[in-house]
Design goal:
globular; 364 residues; OB fold (Dihydrolipoamide Acetyltransferase, E2P)
């Protein structure tokens, strides 16, 4: 931990329950600072704040922010008593108490107490949070009225409030909202794990389809198994256990400078080859305007995935998604690259959305 004292200069932006500031550290360094209102209150210009800066000073994650921990000279008042006894970010200094969607004090406890099936609901699992708006665009391209729930797992950011993407999608009516799962918190609904999150999507929100992805900021160590996206496979397995339709969205790229993530990422290959052990659709985008080398490598990788008998490879024509993704429901960006920089990243996951949308039309 690296603790720092800072002074708020001005508010830069806000979305939902997150506020971004220009601030100055005690040594005169200018920084961007982020506050989550439910946890620390809302700092004002001129106030002193306590921040943590270790990740910022290392240039790691957190969107380049120092994180505001407290306004020591003006602590927020205690709020009114609220139901719920589930603690998230447990046993950390910022642990946060929430009302779980299925716990005894919840209005939804009775409907979820014995629920154990999502009744064929399509469940799309994606490695990166940046896939979310493209998947939503793909679903609504073929099923405009589809009701979509986002399940945020805890491999990346823990506070759902951090995600500008999820906020914009909900604010614009493109998704029903976020269900924060595991140690993640701050969604419109809170769940203990991905199983209860999917059941809540189906029975509390009456969702037609669920998208499962970690929050912003995935983790990887350039080893075979050291990456947070393994949770993608666990979500696909869970979808099958609950009687859903598991759909794998490919993490793919034609512009990533790291060879291990070029075309289909080694993260996706590992998950689908070694973790998924249930019937699962793997959606591959069919594109005519694609580099021959990229197309050849993707073909080889799909042949390799076909060695897992649990997987069903599904080709989805994706050329017409170009126009869809040029006007997305929320900005498209992955690893600092936009749609025009790396079309394959977004076309691949949007194709999974199209496939799920078509399943909905068949069900109806």
């Amino acid at each position: 931990m690296k603790w720092r004292s800072a002074h708020i200069e001005r508010e830069r932006a806000s979305w939902g329950k997150a506020v971004e500031y220009d601030a100055t550290l005690a040594d005169g360094t200018s920084v961007r600072a982020l506050a989550y209102i439910p946890q620390v209150g809302r700092p004002q210009a001129g106030e002193r704040v306590l921040v943590t800066a270790a990740a910022h000073e290392r240039g790691l994650g957190t969107g380049g922010y120092v994180m505001i921990v407290a306004i020591p000279d003006r602590l927020p008042e205690d709020g009114p008593h609220a139901p719920g006894h589930i603690v998230k970010a447990r046993y950390t200094p910022m642990q946060y108490m929430v009302l779980g969607v299925d716990e005894e004090e919840s209005a939804h406890h009775e409907i979820l107490r014995d629920a154990d099936s999502v009744d064929g609901m399509p469940v799309i699992a994606a490695d990166l949070h940046s896939a979310l708006p493209a998947i939503v665009a793909g679903i609504h391209h073929v099923a405009p009225g589809a009701k979509i729930a986002y399940v945020m797992t805890d491999g990346g950011a823990l506070p759902a409030w951090f995600s500008q993407t999820a906020h914009r999608l909900r604010d614009g009516g493109h998704i029903l909202g976020t269900i924060s799962s595991g140690q993640a918190y701050g969604g419109e609904l809170e769940s203990v794990n991905v199983y209860t999150a999917l059941l809540a999507a189906r029975y509390v929100w009456n969702a037609d389809v669920a998208i499962v992805a970690q929050g912003p900021g995935n983790l990887g160590t350039d080893t075979r198994w050291g990456f947070s996206g393994t949770s993608t496979g666990e979500a696909l397995n869970a979808a099958h256990v609950l009687g859903g339709r598991p759909i794998a969205a490919l993490r793919a790229s034609q512009a990533d400078p790291r060879e291990r993530h070029r075309v289909i990422s080694h993260h996706t290959m590992r998950v689908l080859s070694d973790i998924v052990r249930v019937p699962c659709a793997v959606v591959a985008p069919e594109l005519t305007d694609i580099d021959d080398e990229v197309a050849a490598k993707m073909a080889r990788q799909l042949v390799e995935l076909a060695g897992n008998d649990s997987l069903t490879l599904v080709g989805v024509p994706a050329d017409d998604l170009d126009e869809v993704l040029r006007t997305p429901p929320a900005p498209l960006s992955t690893m600092g690259r936009g749609y025009l920089d790396d079309p394959l990243s977004f076309l691949a996951v949007a194709a999974a959305g199209v496939y799920a949308g078509r399943l909905l039309s068949h069900r109806s």
